[in-house]
Design a protein that fits this description.
14% strand; Phosphorylase Kinase, domain 1; alpha+beta; 3-stranded antiparallel β-sheet; 2 domains; 10 strands; 48% helix; Aminoglycoside 3'-phosphotransferase, Chain: A, domain 2; 333 residues
């Protein structure tokens, strides 16, 4: 996307009084284009562009199925439903200046949102863990809000449920197990180390699935809440981004991912509510998440995603962790 192509989007968002001066594609977006818009005379905004040409995942458009909570989460409709719900709950996310699904300005869905100044939580944790501690405390409160107000009798993507739809599958745990078995098969076909441990990992998946007790109420989860998807505003408030995957689901799915991504910082997210998480579900979801973080990055590298070294590092790290689980198992602390 060039300045000329995004100029009409900028005018629609802010009127003719601000001239678009420069456009920069930001690093990190794999399912949509994320561009910083810089205006003549100062000020910036962020443009999200959803189109097949901006999605690095091989075969992603054909895979989109909102009835599957774990399917490819991308699109303006998912973003709109998620932003509406988070705003209603008082959860901070960038303010929307424009959301256009008409194709008038681009042959794609597009949103223009607030450019939150500062760094993301991942960078802040690396640079200054002490300053990050109160941000993590506020993020823990946000997670409690999502769990408390997101309580629902059905699981699934928010946009689907809001429109009266029904998700596939019998339960969250069944979906997680089946997806993990598919990820294991895909990873085993790509790496001999996983292939050698496939039988042990399969047995461990089935054992962890069998230990899970039924559930009939589901929290609200971001779906991919790593520290790179949390911006920190000038007031030190966490700001959630990449929200298209917002869904009613097991909160343990969110916490399994957060524990993996935050490592030694994860205990700072613990609250009375997080202590009540189901340990059997956490064990199943953690194993499934490890396998997803092997198969997913390797699948992404089948396409032309530019930041290949980072994806390979993610796959390699989680491959090692999955093999460790196969060797000796892991208990949720």
């Amino acid at each position: 996307m060039t300045r000329e192509r995004l100029a009409g989007v900028a005018r629609a968002a802010f009127g003719g009084g601000r001239r678009l001066d420069a456009v920069e594609r930001l690093r990190g977006g794999s399912k949509k284009g994320v561009y910083r818009l810089a205006f003549d005379g100062g000020g910036t905004a962020i443009a999200y562009v959803w189109s097949a040409g901006e999605d690095y995942w091989p075969g992603a458009p054909a895979e989109r199925d909102d009835s599957d909570p774990l399917a490819h989460a991308s699109g303006a409709g998912l973003f709109e439903a998620a932003h509406r719900r988070l705003t209603a709950l008082g959860v901070r996310t960038p303010r929307v200046h424009l959301l256009d699904r008409s194709g008038r300005h681009l042959p794609a869905d597009v949103a223009v949102v607030e450019d939150v100044p500062g760094e993301n939580l991942e960078a802040l944790l690396d640079r200054d863990p002490d300053t990050a501690r109160p941000v993590l405390a506020r993020l823990a409160a946000t997670l409690d809000t999502l769990r408390r107000h997101g309580d629902a009798p059905s699981y699934g993507k928010l946009a689907l449920l809001d429109n009266g739809g029904t998700s596939r599958g019998r339960s969250c745990e069944q979906l997680i197990r089946d997806r993990a078995l598919a990820d294991l098969a895909e990873a085993a076909a790509r790496d001999t180390r996983i292939a050698a441990a496939r039988e042990r990992l399969t047995d461990l998946l089935h054992a962890r699935y069998a230990a899970v007790r039924p559930r009939t109420r589901y929290g609200l989860v971001h779906g991919e809440l790593g520290p790179d998807h949390v911006l920190v505003d000038a007031a030190g408030e966490p700001v959630l981004i990449d929200i298209e995957g917002l869904m009613h689901f097991d909160p343990e799915w969110e916490h399994a991912f957060l524990r993996i991504r935050l490592g030694s910082h994860y205990p700072l997210l613990r609250t009375e509510n997080s202590e009540a998480l189901d340990r059997e579900r956490l064990a199943l979801h953690t194993l499934a998440m490890r396998l997803s973080l092997v198969a997913g990055p390797l699948r992404l590298l089948d396409g032309d995603f530019p930041h290949r070294a980072a994806m390979l590092a993610i796959a390699e790290h989680n491959l090692g962790e999955a093999l460790a689980l196969a060797a000796e198992g892991e208990q949720w602390p």
